[in-house]
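I hope you will forgive my troubling you with a question about protein structure. The record follows directly beneath this note:
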Amino acid sequence: MIRNGLLALAATLALTACASTAQSTEDRDCFYTRSVRGYEVVDDRTVLVRINDRERYLLTTIGPIENALNWSSRIAIRAPGGLVCTGSGAGVEIYGGPDRRTFGVTSITRAAPEAPSAS
């Protein structure tokens, strides 16, 4: 009897944990790594990635990227499940540069959209 109660309690806790994880992902601002259309190095620890004309994100790295990434470098963003969400950046990495280094990400924020150019 007690064993069945403990199993039911464990199952309830597991379902609650799954539901809260799914809810927190839905509440955050996310993009898929395959959606990245370009990037630029903002400073020695920040990379701006472009998803489209309206969506841009700032990824702050753990260590300095210095000259490891520039306009001629190809980069890849690695994330669990290919999904990057605003927040801590845990598990997200930027990979690239001529010596193919990996840079851990500490935070991800949505950047303001680009102002339309005057023509």
The mean pLDDT is 80. The first helix runs from residue 2 to 27.
